[in-house]
Amino acid sequence: MRERARHDRTTIYDVARLAGVSHQTVSRVINNELGVAARTRQRVLDSIQQLGYRRRSAARSLASSTSQTLAVLSTGGCSYGPSATVLGIHRAAARHRLAVLSSLLERHTASAVPGALGLLLAEEPMALIAVTDDEQAAGTIARICEQSRTPYVLTGATPPNNELAPHASVRLDQETAGQEAVEQLLARGARRIGYIPGPRFSADAQSRQVGVLRAATQHGIPLRRLPEGDWTVKAGFRIADSLRSDEVDGIVAANDRMAIGAIQALQARGVSVPGEVQVIGFDDGPEAALVDPSLSSMRLSFDLLGVMAVRAALDLTRGTASDVAIRSQFVERGSVRTTRTSLARIGDRRPAAV
Amino acid sequence: MRERARHDRTTIYDVARLAGVSHQTVSRVINNELGVAARTRQRVLDSIQQLGYRRRSAARSLASSTSQTLAVLSTGGCSYGPSATVLGIHRAAARHRLAVLSSLLERHTASAVPGALGLLLAEEPMALIAVTDDEQAAGTIARICEQSRTPYVLTGATPPNNELAPHASVRLDQETAGQEAVEQLLARGARRIGYIPGPRFSADAQSRQVGVLRAATQHGIPLRRLPEGDWTVKAGFRIADSLRSDEVDGIVAANDRMAIGAIQALQARGVSVPGEVQVIGFDDGPEAALVDPSLSSMRLSFDLLGVMAVRAALDLTRGTASDVAIRSQFVERGSVRTTRTSLARIGDRRPAAV
DNA sequence: GAATTGTGAGCGCTCACAATT
DNA sequence: GAATTGTGAGCGCTCACAATT
């Protein structure tokens, strides 16, 4: 035998020796397999305890060609939605006793996606969950996963048509949310509605816009489409500031930040919110409740999105591909006027989902 | 040879055959080792490219008993500080081409720490970084890491005295930040300063308080210590609301949220901020700039904290233990009065760090 | 025959050393 | 002798099967 640094690590062989069984029996016990006599199992468990044995997952992965690891790639930095989604993924993964390997990138670092993905895939995760609303990044992720035959779940972006690797899509039903945002303003008496869209590259922004436009069409009201913003407060301010007085009596912004900026611009010009202009944002992030007036917003269940993404990933490994859309919820706050009439009639037209 | 499902996976042996070299030479190339002839290296690289070979990290870990993986355990949920720290860790890890295995828990889930840690340690990370300001959680983490001889880095909590496993501490210099917050108010004419502390279990809250109290003592001003809050806007509101009029002309709150709540309470009673009471928070999170008046805050470089934590973790694996404190920065906004006099004289007394 | 336990090879790398140029 | 390349065992598990109760 060669001279190799002898580690003091305990292996299943040590446990087996102490328990007086074979290594395979120990393997059966740590994998909770059936067909081990209760007494034997107990002896093995005692030995594990006594020696402080802990299974080496690298050895297991290598031998079984499977891992108990989920990979997560997010391009959302530390902004609220992506963070909450990633947190939901972790909660669900912990419940299934899966390890989570993650790579968090910031927006506009698409060039870093292949490198990050390579690092993740080297660990051979059972599946990869992409948390991104950047269509280009999602495309890159899908392509590389297809190449390496890694099952993947997209949250927020459009799934491709490829079929080399199993994949699924979990998303928030942003279209319906966009539609409801407009309908909430209509129900509150607004008739000249302006829409501040999010950036073109964002799938989220696109679907919200589709819903907004659809609502306007369906209800036969003109929609004032404002310039595209980049999600920031500053952009919301600038865009709302360019409006002529009286041009709108309601504003839907594609996210909370831009809605907050819009409110600030209106207030700076002495326009009352919600008296003269009502405003609704998207996300219902933590800042929505803090501003004055507090911001009404379409609440998107990012946490649930993460949980469903894990479920979809596990389904994939069992051969089932899912395509889930999660419903949003209107949160009424100070930036809109209260309404006495029930909105049920308008709201109920939406298709059920989840 | 037994019948075993033959995977189509390419290994270094496949690469070696194609390149006409031994598997060891391939290993040398993929590990960037010296002493491989340039021509040979190129042939191997070409073969890797051609076959789409990707190293299996499980095999590498098993054979070398080392991994290129960093484990991260956070108890901060998706709130700003912890998220930004975790993001910083990811940025730095990516730069070093390290995989990141993470477990994100929410506050008050201390009971989940051992389970989460077990899952992480099974992967045998080169080191673990704890992102928590919960002393109890940090204690548990330290104990378990010591047991399994895993190097660990604490961010935000106090390191223990154990010496079984190498460990380091990286933190934000919260004491100095607390001191400066008070001094900024003093420099702006405030003389009756109230302090809203964070929860007792939080190490962050404790160090901020130490600095605040020290500043008051040093400058010989009375400090009105208010009841302890739980970081929420609501707590800040409640605590500030319990103040008698004129009791304070300056408030330092242990975080932005509580500071925002305090401002709202004051404004609700018709007290002008910053006219009658000036307010300073901690964190400089995204909400600080959004409220009205915008909130002055002690900016803590969470991102840098994460980056330094990775550096400390790498140092640990080379046998160096570091203990780093990162300086904070005052961000002046609308919730304090402007001052014409330079603050350099008061500010300069602080010891240099990082 | 059913339930339980054991045997030995193999997963894909790295390590220590040997062999070749 | 220095630079480069090769050999075979071993890391700690699981797999497929065999052997035992």
Automatic annotation (TrEMBL), chains A, B:
Gene3D superfamilies, alphabetized: 3.40.50.2300, lambda repressor-like DNA-binding domains
SMART domains given in the database record: HTH_LACI (SM00354)
Q: Which PROSITE patterns does the record associate with it?
A: HTH_LACI_1, HTH_LACI_2
* A Pfam family matched in the record: Peripla_BP_3
Keyword tags: DNA-binding, Transcription, Transcription regulation
Instruction: Check the record and name the InterPro entries matching this protein.
Output: HTH_LacI (IPR000843), LacI/GalR-like_sensor (IPR046335), Lambda_DNA-bd_dom_sf (IPR010982), Peripla_BP_I (IPR028082)
> What start-end ranges are recorded for coiled-coil regions in this protein?
none
Keyword presence, Protease:
no
tRNA processing: is it a keyword of this entry?
Answer: no
Instruction: Name the PANTHER family on file.
Output: LACI-RELATED TRANSCRIPTIONAL REPRESSOR, LACTOSE OPERON REPRESSOR
UniProt-recorded name of the protein: LacI family DNA-binding transcriptional regulator
